[in-house]
């Protein structure tokens, strides 16, 4: 397993990874995107079924860093709203995005394996934590859509999620699954106002929450796990 994590993460986070002997690389700033979040891995990258899809502006960096990984370049210049084209969320059954943003080949590949749920929010992965049986979101629009689809969903607050340049961030950008039973956060999730909701769902789903203690609860973009 190798992780791709934001280069803006704090030293306690990187120390945690090193103490756990988790292999990782730091993200490459994608200067074609907004400078407040151009470091976020899930803006430039999407990993599915042993293939890492990379926005073409940073393709060479990841190609050089990940020699043994199947990597495909995505030319986002021809796509509508290129900042969200790879920001796709999924779990064992569903994938969540808006097809007008999704690259055609990725959409077709996902559709063969999972049921598509259309959401209006382009930043799908930023906005959701996708457990196998429950979705957690801080986006009211996503929450209402999933309720209509009869998907088990919990709405949490965006208050207290730090995001550079904004009043608050998104819950999905605070973390990422590094295995089926481990969810890694950039910051101390126990400081978050709705920690009890996340902890309860994690316990039900038999997922361990991993985080650096006594650190800010931050949105640095969803963590990408390559296995």
Mean pLDDT comes to 96
List the helices and strands in order.
EHEHEEHEEEHEHEEHEEEHEE
Overall structural class, as computed from helix and strand content, comes to alpha/beta
- Number of beta strands: 15
Characterize the largest beta sheet: strand count, sense, and whether it forms a barrel: 3 strands, mixed
The whole-angstrom Rg is: 16 Å
**Span of the ends, CA to CA:** 5 Å
The amount of beta strand, in percent, is 15-25%
The dominant shape is globular
Give the low-confidence spans. none
Strand order of the largest sheet: 2-1-15
Number of helices: 7
**Overall helicity:** 10-25%
Task: Report what the structure shows.
This protein is α/β, with parallel strands linked by helices. Helix content is 23%, strand content 25%. It has seven helices and 15 strands. It has helices spanning 11-19, 41-44, 59-65, 104-113, 124-127, 140-148, 195-204, and strands at residues 2-5, 23-26, 45-48, 51-55, 70-74, 89-90, 94-97, 115-118, 128-130, 135-137, 153-155, 175-179, 182-185, 208-210, 224-226. The protein is globular.
Compact overview of the structure:
It is built from seven helices and 15 strands. It is α/β, with parallel strands linked by helices and 227 residues long.
Highlighted features:
three-stranded mixed beta sheet, alpha/beta, 227 residues, 7 helices
Secondary-structure map:
Elements: E1 2-5, H1 11-19, E2 23-26, H2 41-44, E3 45-48, E4 51-55, H3 59-65, E5 70-74, E6 89-90, E7 94-97, H4 104-113, E8 115-118, H5 124-127, E9 128-130, E10 135-137, H6 140-148, E11 153-155, E12 175-179, E13 182-185, H7 195-204, E14 208-210, E15 224-226
Parallel strand pairs: 1-2, 4-5, 7-8, 10-11, 13-14
Antiparallel strand pairs: 1-15, 3-4, 6-7, 9-10, 12-13
